[in-house]
Amino acid sequence: MSSNANPDRGIIGIFGYLDTFCRTIEQVRERTDFAGHELFSPTSYHEIEHACGFGASPVRFFTLIGALTGTCVGFGLPLLCDWDWPLIVGGKTSGVYSLPAYVVLGFECTILLGVLATVLGMLLLGRIPNPRRRVLDPRTTDDKFAIFLPGATMAGAQAQFLKQCGAEEVRST
Amino acid sequence: MSDDAKLWSKTISDVNPEILLNLEKPHPSFYAAFALAVLCLLFGIVLVGLHTTYGLGLWNFAPPVYWEVDITNFVFWVGIGHAGTLISAILFLFRAKWRNTVNRSAEAMTIFAVICAASFPLIHMGRMWVGAYWALPLPNTNNLWINFRSPLVWDVFAISTYFTTSLLFWYMGLVPDLASIRDRMTGFKRLVYGFMSFGWRGTAKQWWHYEAGYGFLAALATPLVLSVHSVVSWDFAMSLQPGWHTVIFPPYFVAGAILSGCAMVYSLLVPVRYMFKLEKFILPEHLDACLRLTLLTSTIVSYAYAIEFFVAWYSGNPYEWALFAKRAVGPYCFYFWVMTFCNCIFPMAFWSKKIRSSIPVSLVICILINVGMWFERYNIIVSSLVEDFVPARWGHVQPGLWEIGITVGSFGLFFTFYLIFCKFFPIVSLSEIKLIMPKPLSSKGKGGHGGHGGHSGQPAKGGAHHV
């Protein structure tokens, strides 16, 4: 398949049952002629994640970096402002001597930047928004599961394999 | 047959077509409710417009009470929002299944409640466009930075973080559901929902990252929800005012917030469940779980009320004790006893399963709890403020028509947003409710040990072993 080919062209197998779908995923992973396949599910069944062999998502690194940055910002902002112009309140000195009062700001900014970075991670790693890709079968956001193989045709062995695995429907996209 | 299968009369194939009926023509009661909400909102807008033009003198307050109903409303609305985050984040981490049916509407409630709350400090500042500037960490005309040691500044950080987190948590939860709506639509509506769903396709990899991210959002929102009302309570507790300067305030405020929020979730769910025919999805068991949470938080709040009185007496501080005694038998005793009956006495009826099973009775009690929680905030704020350190200034204030009008307007704002949400977005999370319904297994998978349906042993998002 050339790099300019439509990424949505190929074959799709629709499955109605979660267990059949998971068994198919495990078999597909052992085959060499299913390279680049995509799996679709109406919701996040943990069984699919297991069948795919996914480990921990790298989203956690976004969260960690965002949260640590937030901690630095939360403590840094009042400290820098104090450094720029110390504000003596009630005869009490400011700066690092007021750190306990800045814990609230540090905490809130940790959460805020952690959340923003997590959402960024979810979007970037999930490759959304992506206007170039279209929905291959609307039932996959309703109650059906699907395996999509780009570049394959109905005449190929892959389509036959999906039918044997228990796909309710196999068609080209 | 599993417990899940016994509980549900529907399958996951029924979820999208039946829950999304709300996008079609709603029940006539929806239009009546919406018209009333918009009317209240317009009334509030007119009042805010007039007081922005003519100044704060129109309000009924007098020294030493400079903020009365507006700060009461601020605390009340922030509190309402808390149950949304509790249900969406904390119960998610606890894997409480029932939250999957109510979390979406509870999260929406949080966002609209925080919008209502945030509007009150701005309204109170009179010229709100100037007030917005002072609320941010920007230097003043003398190049002095704001005082970062002030709890009011902490509050700005807390509320803005809370709003942003709640909004993102809610919206990221909505993305797969918006894609489900998109795939049922044609033409312009499909384009709009496609845009709002970011082109979500539901691939296994998207779900993998989504699931992990959602968990982290929940983990971040959990300490946040406990901190926000604690910070709100410090607006009071950091002062030296008798009645406010107590260490019990943060947990007391958080428990009160969750009590009012749970009562509000119930008060909203019952009519929405009826209007949009969601009885087969929001089951009596889910409503019952919400009431049990309300009962739990009511007992915590009752304990906090008792401890406050005990410490006022036990501390030996005559000013503290005088104030508390006055709350119970003084000029503001009406507010105190309404608060006590609505928040401590009436919710005790929820110990009875028979009462929890009666939706009309439970609804009345939940509305009374909300009334009680408003009175609680008014009681705490005004009874302490009205008798400050200068006895010559002591007085008595009551909410006037302006204050009541703007409060009604805030309810109009809340319900207008909420009803718009109910009309255009899925009220129940489509992707999450599917997780607590029986899994679509083949006859082979249903027999034996459940095949892949049960091989992980771990619940997915929202999965759990108990209602």
What does this structure look like?
- The complex is a heterodimer of chains A (173) and B (467).
- Chain A has 5 helices and 4 strands; from the N terminus they run βαβαααβαβ.
- Chain A is of the alpha+beta class and 173 residues long.
- Chain A has 2 domains: 10-42 and 143-172; 59-125, no CATH class.
- Chain A has a 4-stranded antiparallel sheet with strand order 2-3-1-4.
- The longest helix of chain A is centred in the middle third of the chain and has 27 residues, at 99-125.
- Chain A is elongated and about 85 Å long.
- The relative contact order of chain A is 0.28.
- Chain B contains 18 helices and no strands.
- Chain B has a domain at 3-138 and 146-277 and 403-436.
- Helix content of chain B is 70%, strand content 0%.
- With 467 residues, chain B is mainly α.
- Mean pLDDT of chain B is 86; it is low at 448-467.
- Chain B is globular and about 80 Å long.
- Classes of the chains: A alpha+beta (173), B mainly alpha (467).
- Chains A and B meet through helix 1, strand 2, helix 2, helix 3 and helix 4 of A and helix 2, helix 7, helix 9 and helix 17 of B.
Outline:
Chain A has 5 helices and 4 strands; from the N terminus they run βαβαααβαβ. Chain A has helices at residues 18-30, 46-52, 59-84, 99-125, 157-165, and strands spanning 10-15, 38-40, 145-150, 169-172.
